[in-house]
Write a structure and sequence with these properties.
By secondary structure, the chain is mainly α. It has 17 helices and 2 strands. The N terminus is likely disordered.
Length: 424
């Protein structure tokens, strides 16, 4: 090129310079896809394990904690979800400051330790400490770096890469409930939990060896102000509100799928498979929409999936009271909500500076944690208030999903400047 008549030659950048350029996304290559593979297993052992809450809700109600009400027992899975989400802003800032390596190693140890402690628990407070606090803290330290690292390697194929990684939680949600249901009658609860922990330890070794960020850590001053400053951005605020209400509605069916199946007359074994059906369909809902989103827009796909979830609750779950209805709802609801899980990090990345993704993702998940904490106990209280019927829980779930869908629509319209048929 020339400047003032003088030809200027640009020195080719080294591989290291390209790697640390925030605007140079490889969008492929062996190292990038190895990150996706490691993140897949990271999601398997974190969100995948959390997706098993329906199995434990039913098991604890009929075994160790049979004397407690469903609402009281539901605090175990709901607090677990709350913990993994509320850890988001802290893990996000640590990721931006130090990178993924130390976080993931420490998180792996804490997660496995929590599961081992749960295996020897028998009292309510022990399950709270081990399964609802310790284990999710470790899982969060694996979960958020896994997602955040992918965003540094992909741009054009980001939604697809996110979807493939997020399908790991679906795979975990299929495999783990079957393992738990099959192993408990054979080797007991304690050794079942330990067997699951050993499986996750092997997968965590792969995750720690493969997941890495393309960018160097950017040390920043920690402060609560930076957390709240992110909400001054209207698209991010609308997206956070959408995630809050959608999560409030989404986690209730996940928690009570098994008990609902028992309520409509399913055998314990068949009801237990509802969780695996949900997560199996969720895997499809995490990969396929990601591929479509790269072509038609992340917000467009997310809005469609949110509206579909709402329709399924009011059109299938609420009026139906049969085995077939429970199976159809579990599968289709898994398909629609899987899109939400996979697309959320891509939505944040789309409206954020690449070097603030850790903080912003954490901020959004922190608000979602409130919904995750309160949703299931509210659902349990609604079941009790309706004398064991599920209709009040179903109506509440549908309303929350509808409000979340409305905020997804508002965020899409804001970014599209009021244009309905445009890629966003």
């Amino acid at each position: 090129m020339t400047k003032s008549g003088v030809e200027v030659h640009q020195e080719p950048r080294s591989a290291e310079e390209k790697r640390n350029d925030a605007q140079s996304f490889p969008d492929g290559g062996l190292q990038a896809w190895l990150v996706v593979l490691g993140a897949f297993f990271g999601l398997f052992i974190s969100f995948g394990w959390t997706n098993c809450v329906g199995v434990f809700q039913e098991y604890y109600e009929t075994h160790q904690l049979a004397l407690l009400s469903p609402s009281t027992v539901s605090w175990i899975p709901s607090l677990s979800m709350f913990t993994i989400f509320i850890a988001g802003p802290f893990v996000g800032q640590l990721f931006d400051h130090f990178g993924p390596r130390v976080l993931m190693l420490l998180g792996s140890a804490i997660h496995i330790f929590g599961l081992m402690m749960a295996s020897i628990s028998s009292k309510y407070y022990q399950f709270i400490l081990s399964q609802s606090i310790c284990s999710p803290i470790g899982a969060a330290m694996v979960l958020y770096p896994s997602f955040s690292c992918i965003t540094t390697w992909f741009l054009k194929k980001r939604a697809l890469a996110m979807g493939i990684a997020a399908s790991g939680s679906s795979m975990g949600g299929v495999v783990m409930p079957i393992m738990v249901n099959r192993l408990i009658p054979v080797i007991g609860f304690g050794w079942t939990m330990r067997t699951c922990a050993f499986l996750m330890l092997g997968l965590l070794i792969i995750t720690n060896l493969t997941v890495r960020s393309r960018l160097r850590p950017q040390p920043k001053n920690f402060g609560i102000a930076s957390f709240f400053t992110t909400f001054k951005d209207p698209p991010f605020l609308l997206l956070t509100l959408a995630g809050f209400f959608y999560s409030m509605g989404m986690f209730i069916p996940i928690t009570f799928l098994v008990t609902y199946g028992r309520n409509v007359g399913m055998s314990p074994s068949l009801a237990g498979y509802l969780v695996s059906m949900f997560n199996g369909a969720s895997g499809i809902g995490r990969i396929l929409p990601g591929y479509v989103a790269d072509k038609v827009g992340n917000f467009n796909v997310s809005l469609f999936a949110a509206c579909l979830s709402t329709v399924l609750v009011f059109g299938v779950w609420l009026p139906g009271h049969s085995h077939s209805t429970a199976i159809v709802f579990a599968s289709l609801f898994g398909l629609s909500t899987g899109t939400y899980t996979a697309m959320s990090p891509a939505l944040v990345a789309q409206i954020s500076d690449i070097r603030e993704i850790g903080l912003r993702s954490g901020a959004m998940y922190a608000f979602m944690s409130i919904a995750a904490l309160t949703g299931s106990p509210i659902g349990g209280a609604l079941i009790t208030a309706s004398g064991g019927s599920y209709w009040k829980l179903q109506v509440f779930t549908g309303v929350m999903l509808a409000v979340g869908s409305a905020f997804y629509g508002a965020s899409k319209l804001y970014l599209a400047k009021g244009k309905v048929w445009t890629k966003v």
